[in-house]
UniProtKB/TrEMBL annotation:
It holds the Pfam family PepSY_TM. The keyword Glycosyltransferase does not apply. Keywords: Membrane, Transmembrane, Transmembrane helix. The keyword Heme does not apply. It comes from the Bacteria. PROSITE patterns: PROKAR_LIPOPROTEIN. Coiled coil: none annotated. The chain crosses the membrane at residues 12-34, 144-164, 196-216, 347-369. This is Peptidase. InterPro entries: PepSY-ass_TM.
Amino acid sequence: MTLKKINAWLHLWLGLASGLIVFIVSITGCIYVFEKEIRSLYQPWQFVQPQEKSFLLPTQLIAHAKPELGKLKPTSINYGQKNEAATVNSLNRKKGTSLVIYMNPYTAEIIHIDRKSKRSNVDFFRFILNGHRTLWMGKTGSKVIGVGVLIFVCLLISGIVLWWPKKWIKSIKDQSFKIKWSGSFKRVNYDLHKVAGFYVFLVLLLISLTGLVYSYKWYSKSLYWVTSGGKSLEAKPRPLSDTTTNAVFQPKNIDKIYSKLATTSQAAGMFITLPAKSSDAIGFIVYLKAGTFYKADRYAFDQYTMKQFAGNSPLLGKYEDASIPDKIRRMNYDLHVGSVMGLPTKIIAFLASLISASLPITGFLVWYGKKFKKKKGKKPLVQEKMVLKKKISPWELKKVRTAAMQEPVI
């Protein structure tokens, strides 16, 4: 068996084995690309009338949210842009519950309250995200997806090998780069699988490789090793506050840090992680570009002394001070979801994911058509009948036959 036949055999059977997984991951990813934009259409409480004044301080928002929080402790605060609501959040990962209080950042007026638990969590996009991450099967599903994405990377590479033209002549290039919409259903389906797959090859490869970072630690470390030129991705110890000090945590410390960061940076948003334990640090993420997560300054402070922890890892420190490998690692999520350059790359990610969802379907139909096609006797070309009737010349008939021989067998 030749190398080409082995490649085709692998492409076929790996595709049949992983087709359903690829379809679910692709279609859910396609839907989730515009999650924020779609939510904004039916969640008006996300927005406020922008004003030419500063936002209220974190402790002021917490104070106004106290009646709704009750006995719950706030775990984080999120500030958006001037026309976006701020949120005071309380998340309990063990119980699977969350409380999000949407507030006007200028007046602390409560706009909306969103309570969720494991039983009441029927949010559409949460359902889609669970399918994308776990196939709605929990930890077992996440492992299945990891294997499925690895197989999909192999399918992309074997597919581009199968696509590669034997000769770079016009007739063959036309078959490789153009979809023959005027052809039969089988021909159009074949072209949709082959040609459309080629055009999204690089985008799907990038989405798949960035997705594998969340599935396998060994892959994540290997990718960092490659992008950094041989440096190891070491797990940095979590910043911890000094509990041996005699100082007492002062909530006003959060206001002081917030005010300093808000005035010294061009923030497009800010996310504050509040200490839940006596040893926890106060975390600040200052977003420098709206709609993305990678371009951000990340800080951690001792909750008692307000001492800033030094940052020399992908998840801590100023963006401009980060090394190229660390910037690439911070960019991983935005590359995966297509938000790295805003709306244009989101559209590209959406279309690529949509085509990706179609590849298992078109591929199955190609295989089914070959496997179960009916054998029919060879029918004379219509043009041959026309020669007999002297409506076209033998020379024109030869051209028709040559073109027919170059048609792909599907």
